């Protein structure tokens, strides 16, 4: 009996490895997805290695060298306070990626829990889904502005506000997948064995709903960067002098016609980052669900 169990486990591990190899090959064949991955990796490395690849302190002012064009020791030029734009863009990318990633992970964890509980408990489903639908009916940026006005302009408050806003999306997706998994025969068999609801939900249902949740989380990551930048642009997001892509663009509004570099470079970095994440998300979705 023990030998049979060991053989079954060995076959299962082999099957998992083969499936993983097939998924990796499928991903590598998708040139757009690979391009997206390369863009994301480059942006993440730039953000992580910001102290190494930047020459100037992003907060250091040099009024005598304000609004200097690219060149002369400043790759992306300087801003209205003489600060190096390249340093501020790289550190701003660091903040934007951190905020977007934190929002995506928090929204995924709590949204997944809400969706699973909603699918398993019909009475809770009515209440939780009505709340989610009410929240989803309000535009994300509008709700974020209202919440930031109440909480105050802090990086932590941006993360809290946008995490709450994106939770219902994950909850709806997790619930839809969990409802179909819940009706499978093996779940009924586990119930008959007397397993607790927590074990059933988190040990047996949750792993089977992760694929669509992970795909949606990548899109939330990209969306969160855009919304955070929008909030910072209008002055209710990441506060000055902390650089973020949004408030760097906001500073450039008054000098946009004469100092083009202040909008061009942070804009390109933001577009490439969001584009890379979205393309990567599309690639992951195509592998998980080829239909």
UniProtKB/TrEMBL annotation:
Subcellular location: Cell membrane
Matching Pfam families: BPD_transp_1 (PF00528), OppC_N (PF12911)
Residue stretches spanning the membrane: 32-53, 95-122, 134-152, 158-174, 213-239, 259-280
Domain named ABC transmembrane type-1: residues: 93-281
Keyword Transport in record: yes
Membrane topology: Multi-pass membrane protein
InterPro entries the UniProt entry points to: BP-dependent_transpt_permease (IPR050366), MetI-like (IPR000515), MetI-like_sf (IPR035906), OppC_N (IPR025966)
Entries under SUPFAM superfamilies matching the protein: MetI-like
Keywords tagged on the record: Cell membrane, Membrane, Transmembrane, Transmembrane helix, Transport
Domain of life: Bacteria
A Gene Ontology term for the protein's cellular component: plasma membrane
Annotated GO biological process: transmembrane transport
CDD domains on file: TM_PBP2
Similarity field: Belongs to the binding-protein-dependent transport system permease family.
Protein name: ABC transmembrane type-1 domain-containing protein
């Amino acid at each position: 009996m023990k030998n049979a169990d060991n053989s079954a486990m060995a076959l299962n591990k082999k099957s998992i490895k083969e499936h993983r190899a097939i998924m990796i090959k499928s991903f590598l064949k998708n040139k757009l997805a690979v391009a997206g991955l390369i863009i994301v990796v480059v942006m993440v490395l730039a953000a992580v290695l910001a102290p190494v690849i930047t020459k100037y302190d992003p907060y250091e002012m040099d009024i005598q060298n304000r609004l200097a064009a690219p060149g002369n020791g400043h790759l992306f030029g300087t801003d209205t306070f003489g600060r190096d734009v390249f340093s501020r863009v790289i550190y701003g990318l660091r903040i934007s990626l951190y905020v977007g990633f934190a929002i995506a992970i928090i929204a995924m964890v709590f949204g997944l829990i809400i969706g699973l509980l909603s699918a398993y408990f019909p009475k809770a489903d009515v209440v939780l889904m009505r709340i989610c639908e009410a929240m989803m009916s309000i535009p994300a940026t509008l709700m974020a502005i209202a919440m930031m006005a109440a909480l105050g302009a802090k990086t932590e408050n941006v993360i809290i506000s946008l995490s709450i806003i994106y939770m219902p999306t994950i909850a709806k997706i997790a619930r839809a997948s969990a409802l179909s998994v819940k009706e499978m025969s093996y779940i009924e068999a586990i119930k008959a064995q007397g397993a607790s609801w927590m074990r059933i939900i988190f040990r047996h249902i949750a792993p089977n709903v992760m694929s669509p949740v992970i795909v949606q989380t990548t899109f939330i990551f990209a969306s969160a960067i855009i919304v955070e930048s929008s909030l910072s642009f209008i002055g209710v997001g990441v506060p000055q002098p902390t650089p973020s892509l949004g408030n760097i663009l906001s500073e450039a509004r008054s000098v946009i016609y004469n100092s083009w570099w202040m909008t061009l470079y942070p804009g390109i970095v933001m577009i490439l980052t969001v584009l890379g994440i979205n393309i990567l998300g599309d690639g992951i979705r195509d592998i998980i669900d080829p239909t």
